[in-house]
Design brief:
With 167 residues, the protein is an alpha+beta fold. It is built from one helix and four strands. The protein has a four-stranded antiparallel sheet.
């Protein structure tokens, strides 16, 4: 009588199958988390770009105005009769100007498109005096700050010093 040959079983045991499933689940979770983080960063970058564009557009509008009021008034903020942004006639008229969430408009009064609807903008103008390095005297002027927010987060803040014209 010859001995019965033993069969060799090739395949995975239940323990090996469970272990490989667990390892695969961890790998898929790690890849998904990395993809999600990358997507969130991409959305954040787009929001920061849009906020900077909105801030830059308003700052350029302000800087295009004359320093001095054509009527000779000198108080910060709009003068009597300057009841809307389209009536502002000099840099300091924008002091305390603000636009609420979803109400951003360009210089012509046209509403910004939907991607900007999450932002609000505000402007402060302050009389300041700076002494640049190498100068012997201070330079008087206005510091204009445009801030764009989304909820409680400041997304963009641009600050420019506008020197007073020589008298």
């Amino acid at each position: 009588m010859s001995p019965t040959p033993q069969r060799c079983h090739r395949g995975l045991t239940i323990v090996e199958a469970v272990m490989s499933t667990v390892i695969l689940a961890f790998a898929v979770t790690a890849v998904a988390a990395a993809l999600f983080a990358g997507t969130q960063q991409a959305y954040e970058a787009v929001d920061v770009r849009l906020a900077n564009e909105a801030a830059q557009a308003l700052l350029e509008e302000i800087l295009a105005k004359p320093y001095n009021d054509p009527q000779g008034a000198s108080a910060l903020g709009p003068e009597a009769g300057e009841t809307s942004r389209t009536l502002f006639d000099n840099v300091d008229d924008y002091h305390n100007y603000s636009e609420a969430v979803g109400t951003l408009k360009d210089a012509t009064g046209t509403a910004y498109p939907a991607p900007y609807a999450k932002f609000s903008r505000s402007v402060t103008v302050a009389a300041t005096s700076l002494q640049p390095t190498g100068f012997t005297t201070a330079v008087s002027g206005l510091t204009v700050t445009v801030t764009v927010t989304s909820g409680p987060r400041v997304m963009a803040r641009l600050v420019r010093f506008v020197p007073a014209p020589a008298s």
